[in-house]
Design a protein that fits this description.
The protein folds into two domains: 182 residues, Spermadhesin, CUB domain (Jelly Rolls); 128 residues, Spermadhesin, CUB domain (Jelly Rolls, Sandwich), CATH 2.60.120. It has two helices and 24 strands. Strands 15-17-23-20-21-19 form a six-stranded mixed sheet, with no helix packed on it. A five-stranded mixed sheet has the order 3-5-14-7-12, with no helix packed on it. It is globular, with a radius of gyration of 20 Å. It binds 2-acetamido-2-deoxy-beta-D-glucopyranose. 2-acetamido-2-deoxy-beta-D-glucopyranose (NAG) binds next to loops. One of its GO terms (molecular function) is corticotropin-releasing hormone binding.
């Protein structure tokens, strides 16, 4: 087990980071049990954003064994001592997808080294997007450089997040990743780049479900809402509006797999009332379920809860599921 502690650089400087990337037991190339937390991700991410480079220059830097990449560029990993379990997380704007190309690969596939690109994020064994909401079957979301026969050198994500797992052991072994962003005019699944912002999710007559995930406790306001031919303020009902084929769910919980989160509320048609909510969960998700019959749309804004607000929620909601563990 390799661990490091570093100070959080993100806005509120609330926590110290405990960074533990666990070494997998056995020989799985699909490392699922990394112990990275969203706080260390965002701390990487924010230090990265400050390093703007002129557009005509390809940004270059070494890749770390545990890394967060939020800019386009070339990232080279070189083995100084054997690395059994590394992971790099990639993130872009909601309206972009990410491509990862492998170049100058000098690793020992036969000896057990591997580089695997994953279409999404895996954190603590959970995946985003969930298998339910991703357009591809799970095995197609892994692109394995060491695939017997034809090494796969490039991969493209289906949403604004992707990642690479790798194990490279020979001293001096190396590879380079080229990360690029591409426009995605109709994003479906998204992880928010920041704990505050506004967003409009649209599903244009497609039979699919989309999730917008904010991995912070937030106050969220649903400002506009239209499902099919209705164009009303949302109706709120607990437990659900599942009988209508088109609805919006607010989900909360402590992991990133939206299919494992708990419903906070479902929003259907014709409702007048407050749609302002404070959700003290580590992960808050707006998920839209769409039958494909209508053009569905939901707009919302959100901001990070401060520690006092989180405290108040804790005190007022003894049974709040987000604070049970
Ligand atoms: C969307 O989600 C609903 C409810 O979670 C599910 O019943 C439905 O099968 C999903 N649709 C698709 C296309 O995955």
């Amino acid at each position: 087990l390799r661990c490091a502690v570093m100070e959080r650089t993100f806005r509120e400087q609330l926590f110290f980071l405990v960074l533990c990337l666990s070494v997998p037991k056995g020989d799985s190339r699909y490392i699922q049990n990394n112990e990275i937390s969203r706080d260390e991700l965002y701390s990487f991410f924010n230090s990265e954003l400050k390093r703007e480079t002129p557009e005509q220059l390809m940004y270059r830097r070494p890749l770390r064994c545990l890394d967060m990449v939020a800019v386009e560029g070339q990232f080279t990993f070189t083995v100084e001592h054997p690395q059994l379990s590394c992971a790099a997380f990639f993130m872009s704007e909601p309206t972009e997808v990410i491509s990862v190309d492998l170049d100058s690969v000098d690793i020992d596939c036969r000896g057990g080294d591997f580089i695997t690109v994953f279409d999404g994020w895996v954190m603590k064994g959970e995946k985003f997007p969930s298998s339910q909401d991703h357009p591809l079957p799970l095995h197609e979301r892994y692109v394995d450089y060491c695939d017997a026969g034809s090494p796969r050198r490039s991969a493209r994500s289906s949403q604004n997040v992707a990642m690479v797992f790798f194990r490279v052991r020979g001293t001096g072994s190396s590879f380079t990743l080229t990360v690029r962003k591409h426009a995605n005019p109709l994003p479906c699944n998204v992880i928010s780049q920041s704990p505050e912002g506004t967003y409009t999710m649209v599903i244009p007559q497609q039979h699919r479900n989309c999730s917008f995930s904010i991995i912070y406790p937030v106050a969220i306001d649903i400002s506009e809402f239209s499902l099919g031919h209705y164009n009303n303020f949302p109706k709120r009902s607990t437990p659900g509006c599942a009988e209508s084929g088109d609805f919006v769910q607010l989900l909360g919980g402590n992991g990133i797999d939206t299919s494992k989160l708990l419903p906070i509320t479902d929003l259907c048609v014709s409702f007048t009332g407050p749609t302002h909510m404070k959700i003290g969960c580590d992960n808050t998700v707006v998920r839209m379920v769409s039958s494909g019959k209508f053009v569905n749309r939901v707009s919302f804004s959100y901001r990070l809860l401060d520690s006092q607000e989180v405290q108040t929620i804790k005190l007022n909601n003894v049974e709040d599921f987000c604070f049970n563990n």
